[in-house]
Amino acid sequence: MRKITNHIVGRYVVFALALAIIAVSINLFYAPHNVAAGGATGIAVLGEVAFGWPVALTTLAVNLLMLVAAFIFLDKATTGRIILGSFALPLMLGIIPQVKIVNDRLLAIIVGSAIFAVGVALLYRIDASSGGTTVPPLIFRKYFGVKTSVGLLVVDLIVSLGNIFVSGIEAFILAVFSIVLTSIIMNYIETGLDRKKTVFVMSNTVLPQIKQVVNEQLPHGLTVLPVTGGFSEARREMLMIVVEQADYQSLTKQILAIDPEAFITVADVAAVHGGIF
Q: Which terminus of the chain has a lower count of CB atoms within 10 Å, N or C?
């Protein structure tokens, strides 16, 4: 992915793919079930349910209003970054047909949230934007010091409140659920899918034996760290071992078989870079 996004053509391919994914989540999962989960597309879904306005055209109208706001209140670089997405997303929404492919409303929102999160995460990966209601949080941050994540959450919740008046309280609950689920999935994607575990090991007597056994299995995943003991204040060694999820249980069993009193702490790792230390 990094090689693709470093190339200008690759960035545009990822950009188009991301917007297509977002459009699929709206036209195949959210809109057919009349659920507006924030954003310009959420406003468009509300407009379609209440007045029959086309989602693509309403999204374009909202994006144009946000572009005017960005031009007035934000710098040219930020405005330039959101122009393409502001026009491209409505185009994708117009191209991809609106079809109800899942009858169960809850299932549709779960799947739609996951798909939407993938699309937005791809946009973040190339530092791009689909425009729309991403603009107000940037304005709030510039003039009031409000974090963009908080500002975006507030805007999405305000849009989601419209569900109560247009589609009912159930749609509002589903919209809030979607916002939370999308945030969780995006966080997981952005921090890396290749999850591993870091195991820290200390032993009073047999650390060299543990090190030897581990080194035979994981020659590239072992680091020795000098540490100061908690109660004794003595200078000691601690093993830091990066291991695949599937190998974690086997590793800890082997360590405890050598020293049942070994001190072991474990942490999840989102990404691992670099060579051998």
A: C
